[in-house]
Amino acid sequence: MSPSRARATTTLALLLLATTACTAAEHESTPAPHSPPVSRQAGQLRLPLDAYAATVAENRVVEDAQDILMRRCMKDLDMEWKTLPSVDAQDTEPPNLRRYGADESEAVRYGYHPRPDPPSVVRRNRAWDEREALPAEVQRAAYGTSGRGGCLKTARNQLVGDTAPPDYHAFNQLTVTALETSRRTPEVRGALRTWHACMAKAGFDYPEPFAASDSERWETAEPTAAERATARADVACQKSAKLVTVWAAAETRIQRRLIQQNSGRLHEAKARKDRWLAAARRVLNREGG
After folding, report:
1. Which residue among 34, 114, 139, 270 is buried most deeply as judged by most CB within 10 Å?
2. Is residue 15 helix, strand or coil?
3. Rounded to whole angstroms, how far apart are CA atoms 142 and 73?
4. Domain presence at residue 238
5. Average pLDDT for residues 128-136, to the nearest whole number?
6. How far is CA 252 from the centre of its chain?
7. 107 within domain boundaries
8. Which domain holds residue 138?
């Protein structure tokens, strides 16, 4: 993420957890107008803790509302501010894609490489990058000398006043704990053993799906034939072992327990998130977006 993007993005932005793989990482790429959809299982996978953190789409709602307010502020200073282009709804990845390993729809074509960003995501990324090239006086007006001042500070004050930004430390901490705890349950360990045996029969020696997907062999510019073959075997063995179904059930149970144990912290985080989102949607509704 570029420096100006980091300054402009609100603290609603989720921590993209390495242990769960990037579910919404934005990266430089060639547009992929016909990217395959994710598998139905990945698209429908929801976990209890999802309710307590903002989705990528919700983050963009706040960014868009903030951008509108920044444009007004910059106009008062006789400066132009181009708002970010929107992202098509179908171009936003589901929240838990690749949480338990490779996705079936992606593996056939891309192996373990991320699929190229679709056009609407590429357009938004380019707009962020273009802000890096803005004249110094425009950047100072937009962000101040600290990176948190200028029209950015004005926009945030107009958006939520003194409402504190959501604190996602609890969510980030608990979602990692849930994943690692569920990984050690008897049923998940059994499914992983079944997956390993299936992979070994196919000629691949990996202890678990993350070891396969994170192999240094795949650090190439484009997916290789060997990578795609490994990924295809991986997802076939996941289906054979019912790995995602078993793992999601185990983690759901653990997440529910963690929510009960941390209800105060989580509910406060959700309340703050909801206030930010409600304020952002009011701005967008007034703007007609």
Report:
1. 139
2. coil
3. 9
4. yes
5. 94
6. 19
7. no
8. 3-98+116-287
